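## Example pair
The file below holds two records. Each record gives the amino-acid sequence first, followed by its structure token line.
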Amino acid sequence: MAKIVLGIGTSHAPQLITTVEEWQLRVAADKQNPHFFRCKPISFDELVTLRAGEGLKAELTPEKQHAKHARNQAALDQLGEILTQAKIDVAVIVGNDQSECFSEGNVAAFSVYRGESFDNIPKTPEQIAKMPPGIAPTARGYCPPERATYHGIPQLADHLIESLMASGFDVGQTTQLPVGPQGTNSIQHAFGFVYRRLMHDQVIANVPVFVNTHYPPNRPKAARCVAFGEALAKAIASWPEDVRVAVIASGGLTHYAIDEEFDRRVLDAMKNKDLPALAAIEEPWLLSGGTAELKNWLPMVAAMSTTDLPMNLIDYVPCYRSEAGTGTAMAFAYWS
């Protein structure tokens, strides 16, 4: 029978790919938009005033930012080595789409890719030129320079779908990634980051599992994501093949307004296998475009909580880029 032997949770934010100098390119955009902070949207200037007592200015020195960037890269290197040493046979990877493939025409709350293969397609120079400041350099971190084709696992995917259906999850399924608003059927960046940064383009056969973290009205709540993860673990364990399986989640933590208190509370619940606490996270905490990606972690954490494997937090790195507390809080953890 299949056995889950490894779990991995990683952030995949642009600040992991860009230089510290390139982080600053996003501050202009930060100033233009309100940001969800503790369940409500707040303007940049209001955040500066609200968070004046947190000493965030001290976090913005080049020395501190470079030190945090180095910590991020060291943590990612460690995760990559752990993945290599685990000698897994297949992976189930939980990620999200941000209008890359799926569009308003068809978005499932949960979906499983069941095709024989899928592609990671580089963006054209024209597409890169249209990206916002500070985002264009990230293209290199989610896709190799040349088009790459990866192996899916149709037999495992079909088994997961059938088992999840039996557990009460009417999941979507696709045998070919759709051509979305960006005009390409390339695998999404949440997965591409794992393939590039953790697998170093030596991509293990895997099943991508999609969570609709962003788009109403069918965004699954935290409790549903937790229950989905428990059902996913049951499905994996019942696959009759004798294989070693890794469950990997990509995304988060809080951004674009970092909230260390919330992140620590969530990470502690993960470490303690406190699934009721994770299921009780109220939707307003997960409405932010970035923080919503915690819903990718929740199924993985719930799946790992069905095993006897402990959580090991490699690092938690809040990467601030402004006095308003904007940026991304990075987390890197494994279960082994």
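Second record, same layout:
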Amino acid sequence: MAQPVIWSDESLSNIEGIADFIGRDSLYYAQVVANEIFAAGESLHDSPRRGNMVPELNNPAIKELFSYSYRLIYEVRDTETEILAVIHGRRRLESVEQFNQGKG
């Protein structure tokens, strides 16, 4: 079932930070990675349940999808899918403020 994909302010800020970091070495690759992350997120429009459950949260509604070495953390809802955060695959989820506060 197709449904809209919503990008949280935090996820957009995360992608901006990722692009800034990569852009220190290559503006081209910064754009490539950012575009791929957005494409991966938008691909959830048609199949939002395809990702894996985030192991740290043990909540079947919150899933993750990888793009390059980045985790797109998202929540599947009845009428929409929201990208909650985009973090490096080695980063501990506990370091993401919204998950520490129980918002995710």
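Notes on the second record: The chain has one domain: 5-90. The chain has a mean pLDDT of 89.
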